[in-house]
Task: structure prediction
Amino acid sequence: MPLVTHRGAVAGVAGAMAARGQSLFPHCANPRCSTGWMRLWRSRRVPSFEGRWACSPECMGELVASALRREMDGGDAVPAPYPHRVPMGLMLVDQGKITPVELHAALEGQRRTEEETGETIRLGEWLLRSGVLSEPALTRALSAQWNCPVFSLDPYRPAEVATAMPRFLSEAGGAVPVRAPGGQILYVAFSGGIDRSLSYALERITGLPVAAGIARDSEFRAAQEQFFATAAPPARYLEAASSWVLARTITKLIEAAKPVEARLVRIHDYYWLRLWRRGADQPGLPAADAVEDLLATIGSPGRARQNLK
Ligand SMILES: [Zn+2]
Result:
């Protein structure tokens, strides 16, 4: 869905009016709107939320609350069926990369470490650390396991993708944006495994199809460092006590910032709201000063963080 610019939103409203052929005034997107024509006549054009216009803060509040309910109710469910991935260990044994004995030892070591330190280590990471598997071999195995390409991150130019995702999601999701050629598609590199929920959220926020791939761990870490050092859109963080508080906060933010567009998505236990302060001049990712982000959880953030990866 293309970003609706201010002008686009107005044209859309006018078009909708013409299509209905009766109402003289823009139509509030809140189905329970009770605003009379007199107030609509003095109407505002922004803010816009998910391409829809609401006539008042009250109606905007209803739109936000219903979007939040949609997200809580499985809005992050990835629609397309993805092939089931083969367990890493079995695949490596099958390919002759490790022996069944090495697999058994690694699984045992993984389990012991988790018991003793509470630290969860992926099997691939474990095999890499213990020298059983080389980094290129692990990268190839992950690429086969997730049925996705290996992306090279050397050289890496973070400036052109600086607004693709908040740093927080890059860190928590083990992902960095790679390139967005022509503003037509967004390449995203993951380390350790693809997070389909994050990938899908990126598609919904940026409006670009996302091509996900695996990157070598060392390249990934170097690229992520560069990504973190690049000027990013401002981001706020919120631990909301309840969904009601979150809906209210989002509505207030939208009403205060009067964005030309705003979108809400969920990635596991995180809610990501992006506001566009102005419309896009060109297709693709926005400029760093054109957008701002809110990242929020409902309830305990500690538990939420564990769930992301
Ligand atoms: Zn209304």
